[in-house]
């Protein structure tokens, strides 16, 4: 067997391993962990809408909420392990491609690489909290956003970089919401294993949850663009401040209630994805 054949055989074996049961369990654990975070963020946002503004409606707030529960430390470690699984799954997709006929396309593998970096950071922050650092990251999502924006604005062409990033987040939010409304997630699900009633319930969570998630992304992007235009890093908002901003629209707290309910739905949708997604 020559060297090229040996290399080809090695790649095939690696690809099969990447799509094996271990990666599948990691992916499903990761989707479950994502669901827990969004569910708790949505609940915290609902509490803010109804007058309890003491908690942060972001990942740090969700982690702190888990830590306060009975067996909170065990739950935090379980959440962290799930997020590590999510990161490893995305890494395997970046290296070997994802499920579907176009799963090995360069665009999809690049997106998976970006998701790997994001979930690796999230997993690290939760692991740091679980290990006793006392925070799910360096400050709230709002402070992190302001700090990063301030640093980037001080770079050459910093305003353009922040503005471009903000526009990119807005576009991502619109795509997330639009794909959810169009039910593009259907091609990722094992629809044949669902009853008609289950499929309807999944569509309620997928459409409502995806639309709310897309709206939050788009709003956060708009704040970043405004920070770039005004050259004021304090204009940038993290997840918590972005969610709170919906209460200050003409629709009042009821828009925040709708967005918060949508985030809860997205958490439930993530649980459905953990059960029926094609890996």
UniProtKB/TrEMBL annotation:
<dbReference type="Pfam" id="PF06724">
    <property type="entry name" value="DUF1206"/>
</dbReference>
<keyword id="KW-0472">Membrane</keyword>
<protein>
    <submittedName>
        <fullName>DUF1206 domain-containing protein</fullName>
    </submittedName>
</protein>
<keyword id="KW-0812">Transmembrane</keyword>
<feature type="domain" description="DUF1206">
    <location>
        <begin position="209"/>
        <end position="277"/>
    </location>
</feature>
<feature type="transmembrane region" description="Helical">
    <location>
        <begin position="70"/>
        <end position="89"/>
    </location>
</feature>
<feature type="transmembrane region" description="Helical">
    <location>
        <begin position="25"/>
        <end position="50"/>
    </location>
</feature>
<feature type="domain" description="DUF1206">
    <location>
        <begin position="113"/>
        <end position="182"/>
    </location>
</feature>
<feature type="transmembrane region" description="Helical">
    <location>
        <begin position="110"/>
        <end position="131"/>
    </location>
</feature>
<feature type="transmembrane region" description="Helical">
    <location>
        <begin position="202"/>
        <end position="229"/>
    </location>
</feature>
<feature type="transmembrane region" description="Helical">
    <location>
        <begin position="160"/>
        <end position="182"/>
    </location>
</feature>
<keyword id="KW-1133">Transmembrane helix</keyword>
<dbReference type="InterPro" id="IPR009597">
    <property type="entry name" value="DUF1206"/>
</dbReference>
<feature type="domain" description="DUF1206">
    <location>
        <begin position="29"/>
        <end position="96"/>
    </location>
</feature>
<feature type="transmembrane region" description="Helical">
    <location>
        <begin position="254"/>
        <end position="274"/>
    </location>
</feature>
